[in-house]
TrEMBL record:
Keywords: Signal
Domain Beta-lactamase-related residues, every copy: 30-336
InterPro entries assigned to the protein according to its UniProt record, in alphabetical order: AmpC-like, Beta-lactam-related, Beta-lactam/transpept-like
Top-level division of the source organism's lineage: Bacteria
Organism of this sequence: Marnyiella aurantia
One Pfam family cited in the UniProt record for this chain: Beta-lactamase
Phylogenetic lineage: Bacteria, Pseudomonadati, Bacteroidota, Flavobacteriia, Flavobacteriales
Presence of keyword Signal: yes
Protein name per the record: Beta-lactamase family protein
Stretch forming the signal peptide: 1-18
Amino acid sequence: MNKLATLSAVLAFSAVFAQSFNTQKMNSFMQALDQNRKFMGTVAVAENGKTVYSNAFGYADVENKVKNTPETKFRIGSISKTFTSALVMKAVEENKLKLDDKLSKYYPQIKNADKITLEHLLNHRSGIHNVTALPDYLTWNSKAITPKDMVAKISAAGSDFEPGKTMSYSNSNYVLLSYILESTYGKSYAKLLEEKITKPLGLSNTYFGKTINPSDKEAFSYVFAENFVKDAETDMSVPTGAGAVVSTTGDLLTFATALFNGKVVSATSLEKMMKMTDGYGYGLFSVPFNGLTGYGHTGGIDGFTSALYHFPQNKTTYVMLSNGSAFDNNRIAIAALSAATGKDFDIPTFKSVAVKAEDLSKLTGTYSSTQIPLKIDVRTRDGKLLAQATGQGEFALEAQSATVFTFEAAGIELQFDPSKNEMILVQSGMKIPFTKDKK
């Protein structure tokens, strides 16, 4: 579940792991984020199943000044899909389900149900529209919903393409898998998660979430608007197995180690989970670097963001759980994994400069590109430059110079040339030119 995108990022660094984790520099990196109010949450790394780094930053409860600790529990968003995928594969092993079972067996009212298999749901090739992308989603996601009503919404949303034709990430797939698991076993998703995964592995801090309970070391989530502001809570009946799991970094390190050591599903099932089709397996995507491949998932729900990556060849696992970020979280992953490999990495400085109002006004306007069907509106307010892409929320930009501005949370840099009415969007290694529309 997410307001944020949840696809893989390429991490480039040495394939030879160092003998010791660079704890001092990693702490310096994270303290820079903490001191500049860029990140709240926990980060942990394990090698060969042993934790080599674990630290916490910011507050689980800003209003009451309750600090995050390594034991703080967070909503993990779409990392829940890895648990759900494992539950489905266990059901297959128990001959309760088959990967080629048709969705029509359970929900014939959904378009193309007679063509959609459970495998299509697992690897996002069903074509079923993403229910969390519906225009009215944020008007009902904080209220409890029954499976019947959710299936009605998914059915009404229709299909985006013929099953099996391509891959398109849709939370609807994993919501339906959750319901299928429940009807197959006659038990709630929460109970299945406990019986088949968390209890056998001793994951005492991992469970199906409810209303956030700070007295049980659960974190609230926050969005950054000058200061961290508490975000609304999605009711966990909405995401179910697509995003309703709560956990800690420690439990997720244990889970990943167990999963990739064959202690959750069989070697055959794990191999299927790890087989990538258009970059996605069953509840996993791949994270390649220098000939090695990691597997995992990212997540986002309300103001929570998360990442879990495991590299089987080097037996190294990275976990990040955040309840408030105004930073490109992929840079945290790169720093942590670099610290584990002996590779150097930069500590952010967050320096910004003051730009005169008349210079900012020269940059405002609507910009279009011939490369992507997206317009970006640039405006000023209270002496700051803000931008808003088509169909997305407004975000404030930090000035690095009079013509270069950044938005750290998404790793965006905007480079302006006011004399030519041009702007270049730099993100994830791409440089996309834009031209200001004529009035």
